[in-house]
Specification:
- This protein is mainly alpha-helical and 67 residues long.
- The protein has one domain.
- It is built from 3 helices and no strands.
Length: 67
């Protein structure tokens, strides 16, 4: 719906660990200056739940801003 109505690119993950992988690969890419600016997280995901994944993403974002 976000893509259809507002033209927002949406990246989807099947679990929390994949969400972290997607965030990290996007955050450290060098091909363009466009990065993930919003993360919507399901709290009940397999492998790693949304709370754990969100904490890891927040920590990565904090470290990225410090550089």
């Amino acid at each position: 719906m976000l893509h259809q109505i507002a033209g927002i690119q949406v990246l989807k993950a099947r679990d929390g660990l994949e969400a972290i992988r997607i965030y990290r690969s996007d955050r450290f890419k060098t091909c363009c200056k466009r990065h993930i600016s919003l993360v919507l997280m399901d709290l009940n995901m397999p492998v790693m739940d949304g709370c754990q994944a969100a904490r890891a993403i927040f920590e990565d974002a904090r470290q990225f801003k410090a550089k």
